[in-house]
Write a structure and sequence with these properties.
This protein is mainly α and 81 residues long. The longest helix is centred in the middle third of the chain and has 79 residues. It is rod-shaped and about 120 Å long.
Length: 81
């Protein structure tokens, strides 16, 4: 009978330790998920920034091309006159 009580106590202790371990793993999982979400947000922000900068560069390139074409047209017009 005493052996059964010791065995039951041992099983109870092991069960409690397993539950504590599970809780620890769940906490680590939550931290990992928070880290992943943070990194995803940072990555997405950088992607959006890169897209905006690329669009801004395209606008500047388009303005330069327009100005160069306008200058070329002006030079042709002046040399014909």
């Amino acid at each position: 009978m005493i052996e059964r009580r010791r065995f039951l106590a041992h099983l109870t202790t092991q069960s409690e330790q397993a539950e504590e371990s599970l809780e620890g793993v769940q906490v680590q999982k939550n931290y990992a998920l928070q880290g992943l979400n943070t990194k995803y947000t940072e990555m997405r922000s950088l992607e959006l920034l890169a897209e905006r900068e690329l669009a801004q560069k395209q606008v500047i390139d388009d303005r330069r091309a327009y100005a160069a074409a306008d200058d070329e047209y002006t030079i042709r017009f002046v040399t014909k006159a």
